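ok so I'm stuck.
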Amino acid sequence: QDLIRRVEDAFKKHLVNVRWMDNVTRDATAAKLDQISNNVGFPDEWIDYASLAPLIANDLFENEQIARKFDTSREFHKLNKPVDRAEWEMSAPTVNAYYDPSKNKMVFPAGILQFPFFERTAPAAVNFGGIGAVMGHELTHAFDDEVW
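replied:
not stuck anymore, here's the structure
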């Protein structure tokens, strides 16, 4: 959380130097930046797989169908319900990150919080050069015109 906050603070600090932005745009950008939610590591709630039908040994095709049926059912149960703003679109062990424009949030799963992107005992400069670059990249998606 500290790293992403520092990346966001640097972004905000440099807004004053962006000559092509007028004050209204600059203020709107700063306000949006202040509202970004950062999800790091793993979601607050895990997907409950208790209702997933038992998998079948040595039958990849059938297991794929079972998994798709489970996921489709899960998605249909979301219809006509409020959006779960805490839900993640990728699993915690995934080595990736993303910005979700519909929820104005960034997600950095535990999978990307490992070498070579992040190492708890590494100097700050090393982590800013790794995961910090990923964080800055995702942050810019909040302000580009092609967020998907």
